[in-house]
Every structure is written in C-alpha cells, then in structure tokens.
TrEMBL record:
SUPFAM superfamilies to which the protein is assigned, alphabetical: ITPase-like (SSF52972)
Stored PANTHER family: BIFUNCTIONAL DTTP/UTP PYROPHOSPHATASE/METHYLTRANSFERASE PROTEIN-RELATED, BIFUNCTIONAL DTTP_UTP PYROPHOSPHATASE_METHYLTRANSFERASE PROTEIN-RELATED
Pfam families the UniProt entry points to: Maf
Functional summary from the UniProt entry: Nucleoside triphosphate pyrophosphatase that hydrolyzes dTTP and UTP. May have a dual role in cell division arrest and in preventing the incorporation of modified nucleotides into cellular nucleic acids.
UniProt-annotated catalytic positions: D69
Gene name as annotated: maf
Taxonomic superkingdom: Bacteria
EC number: 3.6.1.9
Protein name: dTTP/UTP pyrophosphatase
InterPro entries linked: ITPase-like_fam, Maf-like
Amino acid sequence: MALILASASPRRVELLARLGVVPDAVDPAEVDESWAAGELPGPHAARLAALKAATVASRHPDAIVLAADTVVAVGRRVLPKAETEAEARSCLALLSGRRHHIFTGVTVVASGLGRHRLSESIVTFKRFEAAEIEAYIATGEWRGKAGGYAIQGRAEAFVRALSGSWSGIVGLPLFETRALLRSAGLDV
C-alpha cells in the first residue's frame, strides 16, 4: 500500500527517513486551522492532524495517509508560526527563561480507519539577552516555525531542559509515528 504524507514540511520527510520510510507521495492538506471555542492546545493539534489525514485520505482511499500538526504553547497561550521578524522576536521574548509545551498530534488513516497519538514535550529556554534574540533573528531559522524557533538548528543551544520527544518538537514524534505506521501494516 502506498504511503502518502499529508504535509509539505521537509522536516517531516527528513524525520520519516530516520525510520527508513520514504513516502510514495506528498500531498499537503489545505484545511481550516481555526481554533474551536474553548479548545486547548493538545486537543487542537490532535484535531488538526485527524482533519488533515481524513482530508488527504479522501483523495487517496487505497493508501496509508500520515498527517501531523504541531502547536507551541505557554500555558493556554498558543504561539504562532512566525512569519515576520516582529512575530519571532515577540515569541522569543515570551519564551525567554520560561518553559513551554509542544504538542504534536499524529494521525494515520488506512482502510478507512484512523489511528491517533498525541506527543507532549516540555522545553525550558535560558533567559535571553537582547543580542542573542537579534542574532537568532538574523539566521532566518525561525521563519514559518511554531513558536518562532527551530530546535534542530541554532535554537538548540538555548535549551536548558527538555522532557519528551525531540522529534515531536521538530514536528513528527518518531516513537508514536512508528507505532501508528506498524499498526496500519507497514513494516517499520
């Protein structure tokens, strides 16, 4: 059975390769990522992963479809995927010296059956000096990243503590993903 990755993220393709898995196709789901009233960050990530997988599975009914969604939160406050320097600067200022949660929902749909997992990780950053934030902004690594940083890049040097899944923080928790793919019949 073909494996379809319902994501345009090159990081997710790279992470799948660590499992020895190469998707047969990449077909990003274009879905409404709006928040439901009162929705918490973890359930939001799980719901979006399920919605993305179902959307792409409707286009590829005979394939195994893998989808994920990642959310960065400080308490109940969800940080955006930074698109501007100002957004990235604001995210980093908020994260400075604080711990935050990263939720990544993963869904695999095969033969019409959806299987779901949610990964939660906690990261604590050092307190940033203004010059460190500006130097990081200059790298451009933050662009399009939830919370305004990429842990797989230079931001990893700011991590004082990490609990959970490093790959989940990057965008695809490999432990959970492997279990879901195996349950769908892939030899991973």
